[in-house]
């Protein structure tokens, strides 16, 4: 299931939308129209290994490489591919993570997620959506796909 969610779904959705995005992308090359954009939702787990999260880390790392490959392949067609780390968001997934009741050595990061929740430091989903909207609609083309975005990067706070 984690492979379907984190790798197959973004790939097959992008493939299904490509004909439509290529038409938009072609228009953006010839006119003052924004390029078509794809935004992958990444994770710090794409770049770090966490005990107990092997499949999640592996698939998010694969998604990161997919973002880089698709970005290179689709840019000539006027389609930009970006990637964003939304932080630890207050979602049902984070509820599940905090609800872990197994041996601590099976998931040593459990305390971190519990403490973030207790301290009120989880990202609000509405705030994350606002950030995604800003990336998709306001950020310039070259900047959008130049690097992976992170909602916790304070240098961008005033911009969105």
Structure, described:
Strands 1-2-3 form a three-stranded parallel sheet, sandwiched between helices. The longest helix has 29 residues. By secondary structure, it is mainly alpha-helical. α1 packs parallel to α2. The chain starts with a helix and ends in a 10-residue tail after the last strand.
Per-chain topology:
Layout: H1 2-30, E1 36-41, H2 54-74, E2 79-85, H3 92-98, H4 110-118, H5 125-137, H6 141-146, E3 149-150
Parallel strand pairs: 1-2, 2-3
Helix pairs in contact: 1-2
The rough form would be described as: globular
**Which class do the helix and strand fractions yield?**
mainly alpha
Tally of extended strands? 3
Q: Using only CA atoms, what is the Rg? A: 17 Å
Low-confidence sequence ranges: none
Strand order of the largest sheet: 1-2-3
Give the number of helices.
Answer: 6
Taking the sheet with the most strands, its summary is:
3 strands, parallel
H/E element sequence: HEHEHHHHE
How helical, in percent, are the residues? 40-55%
What is the averaged pLDDT score?
90
Report the span from N to C terminus. 34 Å
The proportion of strand residues reads 5-15%
Q: Which labels suit this protein?
A:
about 160 residues, mainly alpha, three-stranded parallel sheet, 6 helices
Condensed summary:
The chain has helices at 2-30, 54-74, 92-98, 110-118, 125-137, 141-146, and strands spanning 36-41, 79-85, 149-150. The protein is mainly α and 160 residues long. Strands 1-2-3 form a three-stranded parallel sheet, with helices on both faces.
């Amino acid at each position: 299931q984690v492979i379907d969610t984190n790798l197959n779904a973004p790939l097959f959705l992008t493939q299904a939308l490509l004909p439509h995005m290529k038409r938009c992308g072609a228009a953006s090359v010839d006119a003052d129209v924004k390029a078509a954009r794809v935004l992958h939702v990444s994770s710090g787990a794409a770049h770090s290994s966490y005990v107990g999260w092997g499949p999640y880390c592996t698939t998010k790392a694969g998604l990161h490489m997919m973002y880089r490959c698709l970005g290179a392949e689709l840019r000539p067609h006027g389609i930009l591919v970006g990637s964003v780390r939304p932080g630890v968001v207050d979602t049902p997934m984070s509820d599940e993570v905090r609800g872990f009741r197994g041996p601590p050595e099976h998931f040593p990061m459990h305390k971190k997620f519990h403490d973030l929740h207790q301290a009120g430091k989880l990202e609000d989903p509405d705030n994350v959506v606002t950030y995604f909207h800003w990336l998709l609609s306001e950020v310039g083309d070259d900047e959008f796909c130049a690097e992976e975005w992170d909602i916790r990067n304070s240098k961008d706070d005033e911009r969105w």
